[in-house]
Amino acid sequence: MGLLTGKTAIVTGAARGIGKAIAMKFAAEGANIAFTDLVIDENGQNTEKEIAALGVKVKGYASNAASFEDTAKVVEQIHADFGSVDILVNNAGITKDGLMMRMSEAQWDAVIGVNLKSAFNFIHACTPIMMRQKSGSIINMASVVGVHGNAGQCNYSASKAGMIGLAKSIAQELGSRGIRANAIAPGFIITDMTAKLSDEVKAEWAKKIPLRRGGTPEDVANIALFLASDMSSYVSGQVIQVDGGMNM
Ligand code: NAI
């Protein structure tokens, strides 16, 4: 028996990166996986194949997490296909960095839409199902910059601070219905999102990390597994930083 045997998990933005690592980790512990991404291209198809090889049910759904309508439809479809929704990981996210003085309205709206409104969309669609089941674990992917701020990322850090407030509010609203909600705040994790940073910026980050390395998607997935499973049955409304000790 795995830690998540028989559970259904939705992971958004999981064709690659941290979302994929979380979906794989959950599948290795026996969860059936419904994941979403903007398109299910080669990355998404590979993710599907790799998860299927672990012996669980899996399906990738093309859906824009920032769209309220798309999300309502995809969650209805997932519920019909899988029969339950036990775990929701709001992982889809983008960056469109810039200093406030130069930030366009479009940069602001895109990041808030994909990183924060998406979580509202999915929580709104999934919680009626979880309430009927009288159990559920919701995990919002935040960031250390949502706790501490970061010059040049006002849109991104506001969206991630929002993910923390959202998780804490849901934890308070729905705890009595058996639903837990927590946030993960990763630091510098090596994925496509951080690959585009210059070597100079990466070296600056490394200096601030006591463990002297960037994190791996699996480092984050391990915490997601803890929060998704009954190992954390008395943990709700928390933010767990996974950052090699960068922020204490
Ligand atoms: P990534 O860029 O490798 O993967 C993000 C995934 O989200 C991609 O597959 C992308 O297609 C998908 N996506 C983008 N817009 C979408 C939309 N509208 N609807 C559905 N899917 C969409 O990024 P990474 O690094 O795996 O990040 C995952 C999450 O972790 C994000 O929320 C990110 O903000 C957060 N995070 C990442 C950190 C890092 O250092 N890589 C640090 C802190 C937080």
UniProtKB/TrEMBL annotation:
CDD domains: BKR_SDR_c (cd05333). Its EC number is 1.1.1.100. It is an enzyme of class 1 (oxidoreductase). GO terms for molecular function: 3-oxoacyl-[acyl-carrier-protein] reductase (NADPH) activity; NAD binding. GO terms for biological process: fatty acid biosynthetic process. PROSITE patterns: ADH_SHORT. Keywords: Fatty acid biosynthesis, Fatty acid metabolism, Lipid biosynthesis, Lipid metabolism, NADP, Oxidoreductase. Pfam families: adh_short_C2. Residues 7-187 form the Ketoreductase domain. Pathway: Lipid metabolism; fatty acid biosynthesis. SUPFAM superfamilies: NAD(P)-binding Rossmann-fold domains. Belongs to the short-chain dehydrogenases/reductases (SDR) family. Catalyzes the NADPH-dependent reduction of beta-ketoacyl-ACP substrates to beta-hydroxyacyl-ACP products, the first reductive step in the elongation cycle of fatty acid biosynthesis. Homotetramer. This is 3-oxoacyl-[acyl-carrier-protein] reductase.
